[in-house]
Design brief:
Elements lengths: L1 H13 L1 H37 L2 E6 L10 H10 L4 E5 L1 H11 L4 H6 L8 E5 L6 H9 L4 E6 H44 L1 H9 L4 H42 L9 H30 L3
Length: 291
């Protein structure tokens, strides 16, 4: 094994541009793969968060200024769904919430007053299945201008994420195929250039495993380095953007990402990259050294 590692290093050092090309294509492949993995996991957590806190929000016109004016509606909702909780947000409270969320932008604060914002009623249920009945009650209530229905948000989010995942999967398959052919071509060129050297090794009694081992290791290292580089870039981006995104995520526990989890992602990425690299090398070895 030490001898094969030495030979592998010599192969890579003698053709640095080819090695760099292989690592770059593997880096791109693993970058897209890791990105879509994290996007998929994050979106799944987002959906779980939304489904655990199903909610309908009714926005009233300017005639509604206090909770007493909608007492009958609230009682009807509670009678229909005893497990729900309701919260009335007055214009003044809506302004305070708006000011808190936009305190870093004075211009936005100057443009909005309490009269600009509508009063609203937030209704939270224990299950998404409870939302349709609540929605129908609020939609048919007088002085309600609009109803925000979380089920629509969830369904839209699921549809969009499904399309993103399908597109990402197609892109990953394309890049993996490209990486395989790139490694196959590079390793194949190296085998062709060293045919005489390989013949000599066989004449002196070298086994097939001894001859093919360095090429398989070379493919593994292309995948390994590509995975490490792409993981490092992605983790760096996450660390940079996390402080800027945390204020917008509220109670959604997506960021910050656990270092332990990222190490697990690194391990899985190195394994996946190594497998792709070895498969590409194996195909090259099988094609050019099958005799």
């Amino acid at each position: 094994m030490p001898h094969q590692l030495t030979v592998t290093w010599q192969h890579m050092r003698r053709s640095p541009y080819q090695a760099a090309a292989a690592v770059m294509i593997m880096t791109l492949t693993m970058f897209v793969g890791i990105s879509f993995l994290l996007l998929s996991l994050g979106s799944q957590r987002l959906l779980s968060y939304l489904e655990q806190k199903p909610q309908v929000i009714a926005f009233f016109n300017d005639t509604v200024t206090s909770a007493d004016q909608i007492k009958e509606v609230v009682e009807k909702i509670i009678t229909t769904n005893p497990s729900v909780t309701t919260k009335f947000i007055s214009k003044e409270e809506a302004l305070k919430i708006y000011q808190e969320r936009n305190k870093a932008d004075p211009l936005l604060l100057e443009l909005v007053t309490a009269n600009t914002l509508p009063a609203s009623l937030e209704v939270s249920a224990k299950s998404v299945a409870d939302l349709p009945a609540i929605y129908e009650i609020l939609k048919n209530t007088a002085n309600v201008e609009d109803v925000s229905y979380q089920k629509d948000v969830v369904n839209t989010l699921i549809s969009v994420l499904d399309k993103i995942r399908k597109g990402g999967l197609a892109l990953i398959i394309f890049l993996v195929t490209t990486a395989l052919f790139t490694i196959l071509t590079i390793i194949g060129m190296k085998i062709s250039l060293r045919k005489d050297e390989i013949e000599v090794e066989k004449l002196v009694g070298a086994s097939s495993g001894f001859v093919r081992g360095p090429f398989l290791l070379e493919g593994f290292f292309y995948g390994f380095f590509g995975a490490v580089v792409s993981w490092t870039i992605i983790y760096g981006i996450i660390l940079v953007v996390t402080p800027h995104l945390l204020p917008f995520l509220g109670g959604l526990a997506i960021l910050p990402v656990s270092p332990v989890f990222m190490l697990e992602v690194l391990g899985a990425s190195v394994l996946a990259g190594g497998i792709v690299g070895v498969i590409g090398s194996f195909l090259a070895v099988w094609r050019y050294l099958k005799n």
